[in-house]
Structures are given as structure tokens and as C-alpha cells.
Design a protein that fits this description.
Helix content of chain A: 25-40%
Distance between the termini of chain B: 51 Å
Radius of gyration of chain B: 19 Å
Order of helices and strands of chain B: HEEEEEEEEEEEHEEHE
Radius of gyration of chain A: 28 Å
Shape of chain B: globular
Number of domains of chain A: 3
Largest sheet of chain B: 6 strands, mixed
Number of strands of chain A: 17
Shape of chain A: globular
Strand order of the largest sheet of chain B: 5-4-3-2-1-14
Number of helices of chain B: 3
Number of strands of chain B: 14
CATH superfamily of the largest domain in chain A: RuvBL1 DNA/RNA binding domain
CATH class of the largest domain in chain A: Mainly Beta
CATH topology of chain B: Immunoglobulin-like
CATH topology of the largest domain in chain A: OB fold (Dihydrolipoamide Acetyltransferase, E2P)
Largest interface: A-B, 35 and 24 residues
Strand content of chain B: 35-45%
Largest sheet of chain A: 8 strands, mixed
CATH class of chain B: Mainly Beta
Oligomer: heterodimer
Number of helices of chain A: 15
Helix content of chain B: 10-25%
Strand content of chain A: 15-25%
Distance between the termini of chain A: 80 Å
């Protein structure tokens, strides 16, 4: 019989979940000061001062919330920070303003027409701030008990005892609740509220009765009274929902059929009309407030002429959000037609837009961005390696050099180094081709690739046979 | 118009469906504001067994059934998808189970001795308050039936007892209320009810 030795038993560690690093995860805002002047390097943004200042002005406009249906186009070459500016705006707007970000290709689907997808995106970007009554559980934590299974894997079970000045209740906890209690670092003596509808936990502070003279505590520790009366209370809360969410709630097939219908698909226009009327009513009664948000469509040249004409019309509605588009195309064909137009957008729509353009980055700006990305990805890099990488970034593209950060870091780790050196960069530079070198390579070995003979010998003739 | 008339008028306006099943008369009301009310009566004794409400929230979503009388016997394990937490089964369970002449509440799993409980009436808020001396249980509730007809509470009508780990609170129904109940039952017996096994359309 074999018994697992100590080393075989997996060590169980509590880890707070690590955020995955995305291409724009370093952006925390637009990096403007109070007078909307852009700082050279701030909140993850580098350079593009003009574009950022312009975006800042638009942000002010959104925050005031007076103007509906303005449209902005961010145009610029690939890798000049268009999406970054949009992300920065989203971050600067904060949690309460709806920000919808979609790519131009997302609206093409077999389940829904293009205009329906666009309408949904529009309505997702309009928030309604409304008062609603919800049930909450509010009490002082007497005890949290979490039992881990002996094997180290499997579901945890737990118990939470909450009390008020008058009563005490024991709750059985599920896996999800245990996780959120641990991530909120809730412990005995805390006063917490739990929203019954969403399960969200809020820590209000420490209980006065638990205050001891020599407790070590942070300056932000707040002491509160233990709540009175019943644990479960009804409370009015103000929260923001989007028009689309209200649409979905009211269009869902009722009863058990809802189980089978699954997603909502298209929403009937009657439902929308009803809701618009209802919202208008709430607004007049002072029950609700409209929060116009932002709709951001990336790669907007992927929309076709039908979408553009729909947008023309939709922007005139008084319920339209601020609409931001981004494209990296120059003068090109409008999708769905044979006409050429700047940015692939019809002139009549372009006429309604405020256009912000981004310019290619300067050498020192590239260096700054690479530095920020190194920090974001937890990579130590020597100064001369960064200089080399900046040069690569100038000659090839910013995106390619950012890719090299991660790969070079891995190469560095493999040789057990602590700091990425020039050699690591050189090594990955030879291992991974950039776009220019790759096409050069393809040209050189064209003959050896599959199907190369079709284009070279018969391609052009075949195309013109039946005309 | 007094409270009783108002309530009767509201019931009259509601859309009603009636059904006999399992020895129970089941009545379903839909009010003009789409609020639903379902009641189940014992056919023999006329006791009210279940009364539950389903309301809509401000945004128009249907909320789950709320039990005013009777216990929710449905599977409550996944009652709420977001709140991954249930009250432990050892906690006191509060339910209302009326008799013909009185409102009655039963709180099971009350393991403390009888002298631990204080039951009082808050006349201003028309609510009954249950307190415990050892600070383990507290509940404040109204009698919705009397609330609807805008009638106050009288401490003389209320009594409570404790036995077999259960605290029973009894509140004798006022005579006005009893006469109103009679009117409702006679009205309900007039509505055409379908019996179990009745088929709506004639299968040829």
C-alpha cells in the first residue's frame, strides 16, 4: 500500500486572483491635468498630446451630459494609440457612465440584423439612474468558519454568523460566497452588508465593541455601531442600468418557456417604444435620470453603407449616446459600394463627425511606452537593451517591439538572468520575424510554398475568363 | 369608502381563475398592475392554506413568489443564483398558518425556554414584535390582512405559547374581518371553477 508522502500532497495556497495583462491594461485615464492640458507621460499615456487634449474636451462634453448624439472619429495609422485613447476615455468616465466597446465586425451575425445589433449597442450605451428597493443583509460578523477538505482539492464549505443588537443568524456559505468573503478580507468584528439580489459584499467598518486600545490598524479603519433590529432590511438604492438591460427584462418570454428560448435575439420595436415611454414618464416624475454614455466602435471601416445610413439617422435621436469611432484606413472603398471615400466612411456621415487624428510616435515616446509596458509585465530591462528595442520599434512597429518584451523576458529567465540584456533581445529578434522581414522571406522562398504557382502563372488570366 | 370596501373592490376588479385540485380550492388573481395573487383553501374546512404574491420590480422583471400564508415547499436550493448563501436549517423558521377564527404564526426551531420570549404590539406601526432576552431572535411584522383594510391592532386579541421548540403566536380575527371573509368566500363560490381532469377543449 502506498501512502502519499508529504511532498506529494499539493500545497494549498490562498491567492487573490491575478489580473491578466492585456494590450491596454496599463491605461488608467487620459493623463490630463485639471485644465485639460495633457501631461507628457501620465496614467499610462505617452505623447499624442493633441489627440488627448481633444479627447479630454469631448470627455467634458460627455460628463456634462447635455449633448446627445455627437460623433467623433479617431483616425491614425496602426499602432498610434487610437484604441488606447478610447480606453483612456472609458477609464476616465468611471464606473457609472456606460461605455460600450465593440469592433466593427461584431455586428455581422446570422441571428440578428445589422441594424438590430447597432440599436442594441446604442441602447447599451444609455444609462438610466433609478431608485430601486432591494433587500440587504446587514450585520456584524460574529464568526466565519471555512472548512477545507482534507485532500486540499474539492469544494469548500463554510458558515457565517451575523448579528445585530437584537438577533443572530447562521448562514451556510457556498463556494462563491467564500471566495468573495476572502477576497474582501472579511473577519470577525466587521460590519458588512450583503446585497441579496447580486450577492455583493460591502464592508462598512469595524464594530465599536471590538475596538481595543492597542490594536494595530490602518488610518482608514472606520468604527461603526452594530446595526439594530432585523438582519434583513429593505433599502432604497440608486443604481444605473442601461436601456438595453430594461429591454431584455421586458422582452423575455415569461414562464417556463424562458428556459428554452435562451438568449433574447432581436427585441421587438413595440417593447422599445413602451420602454422609452416609461423612461420618459419616470423622468418627468423625477424618479429616474438619463446618463448618456459612450459607444465606441473600433475598426469602423468594417461597417457597410447600410450601417452608415442607419447611423446618420440614429445620431439624430435625442436618446443617442456620444459615439466614438476609430479607423486606421485612408481613402478606401466604402463597404457595400464601389465608391471611394476617406476612411471608408461616406461623406455625409463624415460631415457630422469631429475628427481627431493620431500621429506616429517619436523615438523617445516609443521608449517611454516600452518602459511602461515593461513595468506592466513585470520585466526588468537594462538601459541599452531598451535602446535597442526602441530602435527596433522605430524601424519595424511598436506592436512588434512590445511583443519582444515578453519573449525576451522568457529567454532571459531560461538563462537564469534577472535583467533582460541586449543578447536576449537579439536572440528573440532572430527567432521571431517582424512583418517586413517576414514578407521579404516569403518573396525569397516564394517558389517553395504551396500553391505559389497558381498566382504566378494562371492567376490573372483565370480572373478575366468570363467577362 | 372604508378599508374593507376598498379591498373588496380591488378583488372584484382583478381577473380571477379558480380550480379544484387535491382537496383544495385554488384561486389565482391578476390585478390591473400585473401583480399576481394565488390562494389555496381547504375545501372541507375553508381554512386558508397558502397565500402568495408575485410582484414586478420597478424595471419590469418578475420577482419570485412571496409567501404571506403557508410555507414555500419548492426546492429552495437554487432560489437565488447570485447569492451563494442560504440560512442554516437550524435557524428559526417563520411561517403563518391561519385557523378559521385566528391568524396564527409558528416559529419553529426556537430552542430556548418559554420565558425567553417577549411578544409585543407596536400600535403606532401596527406591527407585532418578537424579541428574545438572549438576543438570538428578533422579528417585526405586520398583519397584511388587517393592513389592507386599514385596521389597527389590539393587544387583547393576541396570545402566545411555546412548546416542542415552536413559538406559536395567535391573534384572534376581529369580527369585521370575519364578516368580510364570509363575503369573499361566498363571492368565490360563485365563480365557475374547473375541476381536476376537466379538459378545456373537447377532444373529438
Amino acid at each position: 500500500m502506498t501512502t502519499p508522502s508529504a511532498s506529494e500532497i499539493k500545497e494549498v495556497r490562498e491567492i487573490t486572483r491575478i489580473e491578466r495583462i492585456g494590450a491596454h491594461s496599463h491605461i488608467r485615464g487620459l493623463g490630463l491635468d485639471d485644465s485639460l492640458e495633457p501631461r507628457q507621460v501620465s496614467q499610462g499615456m505617452v505623447g499624442q498630446k493633441k489627440a488627448r487634449r481633444a479627447a479630454g474636451l469631448i470627455l467634458e462634453m460627455i460628463k456634462e451630459g447635455k449633448i446627445a448624439g455627437r460623433a467623433v472619429l479617431i483616425a491614425g495609422q496602426p499602432g498610434t494609440g487610437k484604441t488606447a485613447i478610447a480606453m483612456g476615455m472609458a477609464q476616465a468616465l468611471g464606473q457609472d457612465t456606460p461605455f460600450t466597446s465593440i469592433a466593427g465586425s461584431e455586428i455581422f451575425s446570422l441571428e440578428m440584423s445589422k441594424t438590430e445589433a447597432l440599436t442594441q449597442a446604442f441602447r447599451r450605451s444609455i444609462g438610466i439612474r433609478i431608485k430601486e428597493e432591494t433587500e440587504i443583509i446587514e450585520g456584524e460578523v460574529v464568526e466565519i468558519q471555512i472548512d477545507r477538505p482534507a485532500s486540499g482539492t474539492g469544494a469548500k464549505v463554510g458558515k457565517l454568523t451575523l448579528k445585530t443588537t437584537e438577533m443572530e443568524t447562521v448562514y451556510d456559505l457556498g463556494q462563491k460566497m467564500i471566495e468573495s468573503l476572502t477576497s474582501e478580507k472579511v473577519q470577525a468584528g466587521d460590519i458588512i452588508t450583503i446585497d441579496k439580489a447580486t450577492g455583493r459584499i460591502t464592508r462598512l467598518g469595524r464594530s465599536f465593541t471590538r475596538a481595543r486600545d492597542y490594536d494595530a490598524m490602518g488610518p482608514q479603519t472606520k468604527f461603526v455601531q452594530c446595526p439594530e433590529g432585523e438582519l434583513q432590511k429593505r433599502k432604497e438604492v440608486v443604481h444605473t442600468v442601461t436601456l438595453h438591460e430594461i429591454d431584455v427584462i421586458n422582452s423575455r418570454t415569461q414562464g417556463f418557456l424562458a428556459l428554452f428560448s435562451g438568449d433574447t435575439g432581436e427585441i421587438k420595436s413595440e417593447v422599445r417604444d413602451q420602454i422609452n415611454a416609461k423612461v420618459a414618464e419616470w423622468r418627468e416624475e423625477g424618479k429616474a435620470e438619463i446618463v448618456p454614455g459612450v459607444l465606441f466602435i473600433d475598426e469602423v471601416h468594417m461597417l457597410d453603407i447600410e450601417c452608415f445610413s442607419f447611423l446618420n439617422r440614429a445620431l439624430e435621436s435625442d436618446m443617442a449616446p456620444v459615439f466614438i469611432m476609430a479607423t486606421n484606413r485612408g481613402i478606401t472603398r466604402i463597404r457595400g459600394t464601389n465608391y471611394q471615400s476617406p476612411h471608408g466612411i461616406p461623406i455625409d456621415l463624415l460631415d457630422r463627425l469631429l475628427i481627431i487624428s493620431t500621429t506616429p510616435y517619436e523615438e523617445n515616446e516609443i521608449r517611454q511606452i516600452l518602459k511602461i509596458r515593461c513595468e506592466e509585465e513585470d520585466v526588468e530591462m537594462s538601459d541599452d537593451a531598451l535602446t535597442v528595442l526602441t530602435k527596433i520599434g522605430r524601424e519595424t512597429s511598436l506592436r512588434y517591439s512590445i511583443q519582444l518584451i515578453t519573449t525576451a523576458n522568457l529567454a532571459c529567465k531560461k538563462r537564469k538572468g534577472t535583467e533582460v540584456s541586449i543578447d536576449d533581445i537579439k536572440r528573440v529578434y532572430t527567432l521571431f520575424l517582424d512583418e517586413a522581414r517576414s514578407s521579404e522571406f516569403l518573396k525569397e522562398y516564394e517558389q517553395n510554398f504551396l500553391f505559389s504557382e497558381i498566382t504566378s502563372s494562371t492567376g490573372t488570366e483565370k480572373m478575366t475568363v468570363d467577362s | 369608502m372604508n378599508g374593507i370596501e376598498k379591498w373588496l373592490e380591488k378583488l372584484k376588479k382583478a381577473e380571477k381563475t379558480c380550480l379544484f385540485q387535491d382537496g383544495r380550492r385554488k384561486v389565482h388573481y391578476t390585478f390591473p398592475d400585473k401583480t399576481e395573487l394565488a390562494e389555496e383553501y381547504n375545501i372541507q374546512t375553508g381554512e386558508l392554506l397558502i397565500r402568495k404574491w408575485r410582484r414586478k420590480n420597478t424595471l419590469g422583471a418578475k420577482l419570485p413568489w412571496e409567501f404571506e400564508v403557508g410555507l414555500n415547499t419548492d426546492n429552495q436550493v437554487r432560489a437565488n443564483e447570485n447569492l451563494d448563501m442560504t440560512e442554516s436549517s437550524n435557524n428559526p423558521i417563520f411561517s403563518r398558518q391561519d385557523t378559521v377564527n385566528a391568524f396564527q404564526w409558528r416559529i419553529r426551531n426556537m430552542i430556548y425556554s418559554a420565558d425567553n420570549y417577549i411578544v409585543e404590539i407596536d400600535e403606532q406601526q401596527r406591527a407585532i414584535i418578537i424579541k428574545t432576552k438572549n438576543k438570538k431572535y428578533y422579528k417585526k411584522f405586520q398583519i397584511p390582512d388587517l393592513e389592507r383594510i386599514e385596521m389597527g391592532l389590539n393587544p387583547k386579541n393576541m396570545s402566545f405559547s411555546h412548546a416542542n421548540n415552536t413559538l406559536i403566536i395567535t391573534y384572534t380575527k376581529p369580527t369585521e374581518f370575519l364578516s368580510m371573509e364570509k363575503i369573499i368566500t361566498s363571492e368565490l363560490s360563485k365563480t365557475k371553477a374547473s375541476k381536476e381532469g376537466d379538459v378545456e377543449c373537447n377532444p373529438s
